[in-house]
Design goal:
single chain; about 200 residues; alpha/beta; 7 helices; 7 strands
């Protein structure tokens, strides 16, 4: 079965986003899929600096850091799971930096305005995104969190097969008291693995 990479964008170890990610991956693992979890807070990496060297080199050469260890994992994993808590109506700085550093997978034309394509596209890649928000209403509290992940992945060539917003949670570990959210997380992980194993 295809490999699935789970990427967590929370700075808080063992918090609600971590638990949510683990349940999504648990659902995928139950089908026999190969899964790997990466927590961005554990890596020393920088945001994209806009040097544009990747347009020529086709890889990120402008910043040498631990993001380089993630590129092979992204390439070899047809499934991708992104989970982030909401920080000020958006993904965390850790998740935003990770997404921006995927810029190196784009190819660009030389005309104006430039057209682009993704070297990850056309490969049957699929993804699930999830977000945790303290506020009880997506429009007022979660803001652009899910869109920031989904739109970016779709541009890179992923089919986002599911989004999971979880509202009204802040205290560490409180998501354990929301069995319906954890059940849905496992269902999405299972569906992701099954769709990768049986592409239409």
């Amino acid at each position: 079965m295809e490999k699935i990479l789970g990427v967590g964008g929370s700075p808080r170890k063992g918090g609600n986003s971590d638990i949510l990610l683990q349940h999504i991956l648990q659902g995928a693992r139950g089908t026999g899929a190969s899964v790997e979890e990466v927590q961005l807070r554990d890596l020393d990496y920088k945001p994209c600096q806009g040097c544009e060297r990747c347009r020529k080199d086709l890889v990120c050469t402008g910043v040498q850091d631990e993001m380089q260890t993630l590129y092979p994992k992204v390439i070899e994993s047809k499934g991708l799971v992104l989970v982030s808590p909401t920080h000020h109506y958006n993904v965390t700085a850790w998740m935003k930096a990770f997404i921006d550093r995927l810029y190196c997978f784009y190819d660009w034309t030389d005309d104006r305005p430039r057209c682009w394509s993704s070297r990850l596209a056309g490969q049957g890649r699929k993804a699930v995104v999830a977000a945790v928000c303290e506020q009880a209403n997506r429009e007022e509290g979660m803001g652009f969190t899910l869109e920031a992940m989904s739109l970016s992945l779709e541009a890179l060539g992923y089919e986002v097969i599911g989004e999971l917003p979880v509202f009204g949670i802040f205290d560490k570990g409180k998501i354990k008291e929301r069995p319906e959210a954890l059940k849905r997380a496992e269902e999405l992980g299972r569906e992701l693995a099954l769709q990768l194993a049986n592409p239409k």
